[in-house]
Design goal:
With 113 residues, this protein is an alpha+beta fold. It has a single domain (2-111), classed as 2-Layer Sandwich (Alpha-Beta Plaits), CATH 3.30.70. It is built from four helices and four strands.
Amino acid sequence: MITIHLRYEIDADRLEDFREYGRRWIALVERFGGTHHGYFLPSEGDSDEAFALFTFESLAAYERYREDAAVDPECLEAYRFAQETRCIRRYERRFLSPLFSAESSDTEATTGR
């Protein structure tokens, strides 16, 4: 399993546009087989930083999603929307391996730790 963590630097004056962008991608990621864990928008503190998390069963599944999204009309429209509204200034992508509490119990049972 692989979780993708996105950190966005957004235009705080375009927050509603970014919110619309996020709504679109939640549905798109799920349509392509991922599990979207949501967008996390500024509330207090930095007004120009937002985050998103979504998971695919493997890095290969994520790569397939990226290839398919590159030619999908709805995905291309979502990209275009972000470019036209300039709601995103830049973003960073990280790949993470999640650890869930059930896994830590399994590890403790088999390793004695």
